[in-house]
Amino acid sequence: ALNISADNREQLQKLDDVMEQTDNLHSKKMMKIEMLRNSLHRSANANDRLSLCYDIFNEYHVLQFDSAMFYINKVHEIAEKTGNRHFREMATVDKAELMAMGGFYPEAIDYLEKVPLDSADQEVMFKSYIAHFRIYLYWADYCNDAVFAPIYRDRAGKYLEKAMPFIGSSPAGEYYRGEYYIYVKHDDRNAMECYSRVLRNTPHDSRE
Fold this sequence. Notes:
Elements: H1 6-42, H2 46-60, H3 65-82, H4 85-101, H5 105-113, H6 122-143, H7 148-163, H8 171-185, H9 188-201
C-alpha cells in the first residue's frame, strides 16, 4: 500500500475540499444561468430582456467564451434597438475585454477605440479605461519579451491612471486602486492594504 504521511494526507484533504467547493460553485452557477435563461424566454419586456441578457453574460464571462459572446451581442442588439446608449456602450467595452480574454488583443483594442463613448457617463469611462488597462496587461503577459511587453505594460499603466478620477468605493474600485499602486506608483505597502480591504468585502463567488 502507498505510504502517505499525515502532513501529505492533510494537504490532499484540503485539495479535495477545494475541488469539491469548486464543483459546487460551478453547479450553482449553471443553475443560476438556467433560471435566468428561463426568465428571458418568458419575458417580452425589452428592458427586462436587456437586464437578463447582461446577467447571463456576467455568469458566462469566465466560464464559456462562445456563450458569453452570444449574450453580450444580444445586450448590444437590444440596447441599440431601444436607444439605450449606456448599455450599448457598456456592452461594447465588455465585448472588447471578452475578445482579449480569447486572445484577440489587437482586435479588442481596435473594437474598443472605434466606438466613441459618452464622456459624461462616468461608469462607462471608468469601465473603458480599465478595459484598456486589462487588455494591454493581457497582451504584455502574452508577449512576455523585452521589446513589446514593456510597451504594453506602460500603456496599461497610463490607462489605469486615467481611470483613477472615476474610481468608486466598491470592492472593484478598491482592487484597481491597489493595481494603481502596483503598476503606476510601485508602492507595494499601499497596494496590499487595498487588496486586504477587497478580500474582506468581496463575496467568495464574485468574478471581480
